[in-house]
Design brief:
The protein has 6 helices and 3 strands. The chain is mostly helical and 149 residues long. The chain has a 3-stranded antiparallel sheet with strand order 1-2-3. The longest helix has 24 residues. The N and C termini lie far apart (38 Å). The relative contact order is 0.20.
Length: 149
C-alpha cells in the first residue's frame, strides 16, 4: 500500500510509517513508546565520550545524536533520557530507520518525515520539531563527512 503523493522513503522508514498509519491515534502513541524502549545503546566509543555526539537544541529533553558514515553506510546514534519516552521514541525511529542506509538515501529522506507518522494530534509540535532537528542534523553530518572524505 503506497501513497503516490508521498515522497519515496527507504524501505526501513516506509515500513515504520506504514506501521504507525495502520493504527488508531492512541495506538500510535503506544507504538512510539515501544520504540522508546528499543533505542539502541551507543557503541563504546561514543558511550565513553558522549560529547562526540551533537546536542539537539530543538529537543526539550537533553538529546545528543550523531550520524556516522562508515564504508558507504550510515549509522545513526542517539541518547535520550528514559524519562523522555516520546523523544527516545523519535530517536529510536531514526536510529532504526536511518542506520544501514546509503548516504544518498539519508539525504533523500523528506524533511517532513516526522509529520508523516500520523502523530500530529498525539504529540506536541515542539516534540515533532525535536525529531525534525535530529533528522536535519543527521543529514548535515552526512554531508560534512562526505565532503571531508
Amino acid at each position: 500500500m503506497t501513497d503516490d503523493a508521498a515522497p519515496a522513503l527507504p524501505d526501513s522508514l516506509a515500513e515504520i510509517r506504514e506501521d504507525f498509519l495502520a493504527l488508531s491515534e492512541s495506538e500510535r502513541l503506544q507504538l512510539l513508546l515501544e520504540f522508546s524502549r528499543e533505542l539502541p545503546d551507543l557503541p563504546e566509543r561514543y558511550a565513553a565520550a558522549p560529547g562526540m555526539l551533537e546536542k539537539v537544541e530543538e529537543c526539550q529533553s537533553p538529546v545528543r545524536a550523531f550520524a556516522e558514515v562508515s564504508d558507504g553506510v550510515v549509522h545513526f546514534y542517539a541518547t535520550a533520557p528514559q524519562e523522555a519516552p516520546t523523544t527516545r521514541g523519535f530517536a529510536s525511529i531514526l536510529a532504526q530507520g536511518l542506520s544501514g542506509l546509503t548516504p544518498q538515501q539519508v539525504l533523500d529522506v523528506p524533511e517532513e518525515f516526522p509529520l508523516q507518522l500520523g502523530l500530529t494530534r498525539a504529540v506536541s509540535v515542539l516534540r515533532l520539531n525535536g525529531m525534525a532537528g535530529m533528522l536535519t542534523r543527521a543529514k548535515r553530518q552526512v554531508v560534512e563527512q562526505l565532503a571531508a572524505a
